[in-house]
Amino acid sequence: MIFTKLILAHLLGDFILQPNSWVADKENRKLKSKYLYFHVLIHTLLSFIFLWDIQLWWVALVVGISHYIIDALKLSFQNIKTKKRWFFIDQLLHVLVILGISFYYKEFNLNFIEDQQFLKIFIAALFLTTPASVFIKILLSSWTPVSEELNKLQTESLTSAGKYIGILERLLVFTFILVNHWEGVGFMVAAKSVFRFSDLAQAKQRKLTEYVLIGTLLSFGLAVLTGILIK
Description:
The protein is an all-alpha fold. It has 2 domains: 2-104, no CATH class; 112-230, no CATH class. It is built from 11 helices and no strands. Helix 1 runs antiparallel to helix 5, helix 2 packs across helix 3 (34-51) and helix 7 packs across helix 11. It is globular, with a radius of gyration of 23 Å.
């Protein structure tokens, strides 16, 4: 398949065959960096080598030109604050180009949108992200710790870490249930108990510990219930 070959070429060119020194030089000199052009040339050659079809020469050329345009945009507009954001935008655009080529050759289609099972799983996974976080926050609103305890918890942890931990744990639990590996759910509960509740216990914050415990159980419960409903 063209898609898998181009993705392989992309991973090799963007991560394996691009030294950190090249990345640093590109970020410093931007479009004047010779390594930008070496990088684009490597992507073009890798695409042609993996496709290995003279009739698909234009595909390798499109990959190379689009890669230059996307990388040039990233280098021109990113700064220290937006570097992380531009990394993901850059990778997304590269993958979209490869997907566009694959759609042109009819390797993929949008028929999966009409698949009821796919839609159910997608909606369930979407619900377990931010919507579930909002539900849990509202359910816990009457037990929210006093501001001093909550501020202490927030200052001792990463920004929004709890929110993203909750989303990831719910999606993992949901996945374990879909693939009939309930032992994975037990592993998740045990792992979080070790790393989370031991710290809270040492801090001797009983109310805060109970608050986090209820939130965790609600989080796992929503994921388990959603998984069972989809099954």
